[in-house]
Amino acid sequence: MDESGIIIASSNPTYLQALKDHQWQSVFLQARSHWFSKDGFSESRQQQSIGAFVFGHGMYEKAFTPFIGFTGKAYCLEVDDNFFQCDKMSQYKKLDQLLSVTKQNHESSGRSDYRLPLLR
Length: 120
Prior knowledge:
Shape: globular
Number of strands: 4
Radius of gyration: 14 Å
Helix content: 25-40%
Oligomer: single chain
Largest sheet: 4 strands, mixed
């Protein structure tokens, strides 16, 4: 994940499962207002319940020359309802803690990351 990692955090497990099931339209189009906060760009002023957090220099390098088929190694994390009301630094701290715990729990159960298309 360190090369092309992206964490998808959501307080709605339905969105995380839809991503894993490749239900792109339901998550990216139908639920697009849930990707932004009230003070962000959401037209309907919905509470944000899903977000993407990029890490790894590979994602940034690929973004300089985007191409059809551009993907990231996604790891989904369920967060509490208050997560998106925190500042970015607090969000990253919480993600770091959650990632540490969930990775330890998933080590014996196999892969927990998957390819997420970023440009189709």
